[in-house]
Amino acid sequence: MTTELVEILARLEKQGRPGLHNSIAISWIRYNQSNPKPSSGTGAGWNESRLLYPASVVKLFYAVATEAWLQKDLIPETPEMRRALKDMIINSSNDATGLIIDLLTGTTSGPSLYGERWQAWQEQRQLINKWLISLNWSEMKQINCCQKTWGDGPYGRERDFYKSGNQNRNALTTAATARLLEAVMTESLISPLASKRIKELLSRSLDPIQRSQDPENQIDGFLGEGLPKGTRLWSKAGWMSQARNDAAWCCSPEGNPMLLVVFSQGRQRAKDSLLFPSLAKELIKLHYAID
Question: Which residues contact 209 (CB under 8 A, 6 or more apart)?
Fold first, then answer.
């Protein structure tokens, strides 16, 4: 599988994408059963342990953390929390994400803090990272999930928390993202009911009419666009001026699932709306051809 992936990347690079190999990370996993168990797939990766800015893909981590907190009665379940969770994943709302982070960590945005109050705030904001480390998954050791997502950018204590040179910004690997998405789809981390709730939020329609009505559908320009008609898709995309990312679990009605996480970095990659559909098209064909 690694050979095939490298060959595909080489072809895509020759299509006017110099430096593609150095600006993309991929985790690709194939399963040979319709209802796979965790770690039962076979895969290939490219730069999959490289820490990169995840953009809105990090919201998948926050959604799973929310269900884990609810399971432990650490936060109350309210209609407003459910509304924010839905908008965070379905619409990729940054405002909704802010509320979720506040609930998970007991912190709020605002003016700069100092002294003991500032130290306490920073420790609280690390609660999601501490939970991820507690899973004892090797993929989670170096990642960073502690920041809200922004439109214009952080201010006040949020800006301070990014630290000099943005060294404390969110950072994920495709391997860590694939591990978490697999855990959701195989219902192996949080309760089956909680997993199903997240899967409902991640479910995407490939219907062209529905997509045309939503210009930010997380399909067009991403992995979903490259999938054949009839494919079922669960995904969370992320996009900003310097990154285009996507995490997807897909399968045909008759076939076995495929998990594909792709992060690309840099202004040229962010503007490239053809790369992800082309990569998904190649890999899904290879997946079912091998089957």
Answer: none
What residue ranges do the domains of the chain occupy? 2-290
User: What's the rounded mean pLDDT across residues 146-167?
Assistant: 96
Q: How many CB atoms lie within 10 A of CB 52?
A: 21
Q: In whole angstroms, what is the distance from residue 132 CA to residue 203 CA?
A: 24
pLDDT at residue number 184: 98
Q: Are strands 243-251 and 42-46 parallel, antiparallel or unpaired?
A: unpaired
- b/e per residue, 89-126, with b = 16+ CB within 10 A? bbebbbebbbbbbebbbebeeeeebeeeeeeebbeebe
Digit-coded pLDDT (tens) for 206-265:
999 999 998 889 999 999 999 999 999 999 999 999 999 999 999 988 789 999 999 999
Separation of alpha carbons 65 and 77, rounded Å:
13
Quick check: 290 pLDDT over 70? no
The CATH homologous superfamily for domain 2-290 is DD-peptidase/beta-lactamase superfamily (3.40.710.10)
d(CA 291, CA 151): 43
- pLDDT, averaged across the chain: 96
Residue 202 CB-density burial (10 A; 0-12 exposed, 13-18 middle, 19+ buried): buried
Stated pTM of the model: 0.97
